[in-house]
Amino acid sequence: MDNLLFGDNQFFGVNHMSEEKARAQQMQFQNNSAIIDVLDAAYEEGVKTFMCTTHERISEICDHVRANPAKYEGFQFYPCMPYAHKYNNAVTEHGMLGALNQFLPDEGLFKTALKGGMAVAKKDVEGLATILIDMEMKMFKDLSTPVIFLQNVVVDLLLGMGFHEAFKIFHDHVRAKYNAEAGFITMNMPMLLDALESVGIENPIICSNINKIGFRMCGGFDKYVETMRDRKVRA
To answer: In degrees rounded to 5, what are phi and psi of residue 51?
Structure first.
């Protein structure tokens, strides 16, 4: 992985520290040409990896890069799926279980799992999960996507449910179909690492916050430092 990645929060009005700045950025980047201008400037400085959500506007950025292969030689995407905010909004409005009921089929895996039929449900969720992954990856066709991330809104929900096998399903599918490594975004890196290792995912790629105030760091700053120092993880 590159040491320096370019993210997309600023393009879509996401700023966890300032709502005013978020609104200003949303206005600044309301046209895709403004996004492309910034990506071009980053590319010229040697930053060629764009870590982005599967927001619908990203598909238009993909079209632009695909149409100009010579201009974007070596450029790669790190997709992060699913696009988190529609699910965050559902969780806020309906709660965790209500959000699951809203987005998944009536007889899908999660509902079955919640009833205690985890083993029986595994086959159902694997088929559904791979279809959803493929739907989200469609916009990146013929583009370089060496790492594909699962967003924290899903990762931490699965972690809380104890449904660790879902991480293995995601890991195996992106490797088999897209020749990519799986990445996992979380607000609880120490616990997630335990879960990933329990299903045979060694030295995983984990994206999480680390900061002095412990923002979005379940377990605390010291536990994160200890985990990165003493365990095998690409964080």
So the answer is: -90, 115
Structure tokens at 150: 């699962």
- Structure tokens, 9: 């929060």
Identify whether 71 is part of a domain: yes
- In angstroms, the CA 30 to CA 8 distance is 13
Identify which has the larger pLDDT, 85 or 116: 85
Domain of 35 in residue numbering reads as: 9-230
% of the chain beyond a pLDDT of 70: 83
Beta bridge partners of 6: 50
The dihedral formed by the CA atoms of 188, 194, 198 and 199, expressed in degrees to the nearest 10: 40
Helix (H) or strand (E) holding 147: strand 147-150
In a domain, 1, yes or no: no
Total of domains in the chain: 1
